[in-house]
Automatic annotation (TrEMBL):
Keywords: ATP-binding, Nucleotide-binding. It comes from the Eukaryota. It holds the Pfam family PK_Tyr_Ser-Thr. This is Probable receptor-like protein kinase At1g49730 isoform X2.
Amino acid sequence: MDHRLIRKLRPRLLAWLRRSRSGRVLFMKRFPYKDIKRATDGFQSIMYTTSNIAAYKARFQDGGVVLIKEMRDYDQGKDAFYREVQLLGRLHHRHLLALKGLSTGHRRLLVFDNIERGSLKEHLTDPIRTPLDWKTRLQIVIGVVAALEYLLLFNEPPMYHVSISSSSIMLDENFNAKLSDVGLQSSGENYVTVPHTSCAKDCTGQECGNIMFQLGVLILELITGQSSDDRAADLVQWIREYRFCSSIHKMLDPDLGTSVSP
């Protein structure tokens, strides 16, 4: 979509979104702490961690597999926590992992939607899983970009607190990408979501620069089949040493086979 058209339509879309979200979150399911502990095998089924977040795979008695996020060292107060929970509950996009409920007993826990196929990282690094073909990898990138467009352009305030990595991108039954690390203490930062006047209309500044860097690294992961996690700089350096444009055939994930031509 043309950037000028987006800028023209954005105020009207935001006004409509504000009206549609003006009410309270009418329903947010409360999960008993003991049920979450049992479903996560005593909080042993870790999907990914940052300095302030631990994400777990949970299987409840009904057979569904969901993502549980534990908010660690959240010192903004209970009211701020609930405001953020309400904000997350109002985010609706097919490429965002939907918030289903919470638990505020022994730990502050958020329960997100189904993650039956697990994380993108598992599909890139687990030799037992069937490798992702090139068409599916392109579909994943397109989904991530669509979610970012929604978060940055069609929310007020824009949601800049988002982390993009193969560990935090979940896949549904059709291999559609679902961003799971949005808002709250995303990306290991200890802050709540607030508007930034420097980025209110266009994606500029450090926040968006970091997001674009993460997106670039994700694309490299999908091309090479290598998971970067905390070693994003190592993957970028490896690409530079190989001189990407002239040596792309050396960097392609061997699991792609003949599904893509360099």
